[in-house]
Amino acid sequence: MTYPTTEPTTELRVPPGSPVTLEARHEPEPGLSRWLWLVKWLLAIPHYLILAFLWLAFLLVTVIAFVAILFTTHYPRTLFDFNVGVLRWTWRVAYYGYGSLATDRYPPFTLADVPDYPAHLEIARPGPLSRGLVLVKWWLLVLPQSVVTGFFIGGPNAAGGLTGVLALYAGVALLFTGRYPHGMYDLNIGLHRWVARVTAYAALMTDVYPPFRLDQGPQEQ
Predict the structure, then answer these.
(1) Which range (39-48, 87-96, 147-156) has the least confidence?
(2) Is residue 219 part of a domain?
(3) Domain count, the chain
(4) Is residue 104 part of a domain?
(5) According to the 3-state scheme, what is the secondary structure of the chain?
(6) Domain range for residue 160?
(7) I need a labelling partner for 199 at 20 to 30 A (CA). Which of 81, 105, 125, 208 fits?
(8) Contact indicator for 202, 142 with CB cutoff of 8 Å
(9) Is residue 106 in some structural domain?
(10) Mean of pLDDT values over 189-196
């Protein structure tokens, strides 16, 4: 069985009403190593260390953006671009590591989008944001979604929840069959897509409430 591939692109399609786009490109068989996933925890350590500091900065930037939105209704462009970059970097590492195990290409050390890398994330920059929503969406309105997505990812590296379980299953399948199960792949990407939408909402990057919807597959529908 082979999987469809798409050509690298720098423009991600944003479905109507969704400011967050998370997409991936499946490695064609036999593109994935049977055994490399066993040592990716070691290979990804430099990324984990950097991401720990980037996420501290992400939280600080979000607090600053909160104040800016409260007084101006706008999320400062520089701060917005930085936080998008952190989410983008995190997604690439999760896709390589134990959030998905879906590529053997080592993630680049950059906040920018990398067109030829198989994992992409983009968030459309919003216009004026609601002063009222900024007071409650990050802790109250997002609470039901946080319960759901917490079960999906289980932790900051997306390796302890349902996504991690699916990745482990895929790793074992790779070890014994050399194939990444197609259904597991589609479900895993759908879970990460849901988490990305909730994270963007909680981080004040959009006023569009994330849908309780699982959009599976490598590309946005």
Answers:
(1) 147-156
(2) no
(3) 1
(4) yes
(5) CCCCCCCCCCCCCCCCCCCEEEEECCCCCCCCCCCHHHCHHHHCHHHHHHHHHHHHHHHHHHHHHHHHHHHHCCCCHHHHHHHHHHHHHHHHHHHHCCCCCCCCCCCCCCCCCCCCCCEEEEECCCCCCCHHHHHHHHHHHCHHHHHHHHHHHCCCCCCCCHHHHHHHHHHHHHHHHCCCCHHHHHHHHHHHHHHHHHHHHHCCCCCCCCCCCCCCCCCCC
(6) 20-202
(7) 105
(8) yes
(9) yes
(10) 95
Q: Is residue 209 part of a domain?
A: no
- In this prediction, residues 57-64 reach a mean pLDDT of 98
**Cβ neighbours of 15 (radius 10 Å):** 11
| In the predicted structure, residue 147 carries a pLDDT above the cut 80 | yes
Q: For the chain, what is the mean pLDDT?
A: 90
More confident residue, 6 or 73: 73
